[in-house]
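Deliverable D5.2: sample structural annotation.
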Amino acid sequence: MPKAILTGEWSFGPAKENATTENATLASMRVISPAAGTPTLFESTDAAGHFSVTATENGEHRVCVVARAAAVQASLVAKTALEVADHDLAAKREHVEALEQEIEKMENLARHALDASTRGRLVWVEVAMMCTLLVMGLWQINYLKAFFQAKKIL
């Protein structure tokens, strides 16, 4: 069975900017499992930190913040993820094959676009070569004609 992972960061601070309460005694934080009688998964009295717990049971897990001062500002960012024990469940062969086919299709489309672009450029190179050969042939004809006329052979 897949397990849920809960991670997050927290910070506690005084609610007023000019408060003089020491940050370490402002509040505490706990992550509690859904089953009755099970121990707390995570507990801290630090003013700020990071936590990461793996759920051992299904159900709603609670994050509790207990204020120890009159006015406390708390910030909590929590994220969940899925830890998979059996990777065959997450990525079956047909899913991988479908992804491989999609990647191959995209590569073929990119190759086709590149081939079409290259063919277009080659057409212009060939046209330029033909024009150059035509101009050179006409120049040679005129040059030889002028040469033979100068030698009075024609």
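Annotation notes: Residues 92-153 form one domain. The chain has two domains: 3-83, 92-153.
The annotation will be released with the project's public dataset once the embargo ends.
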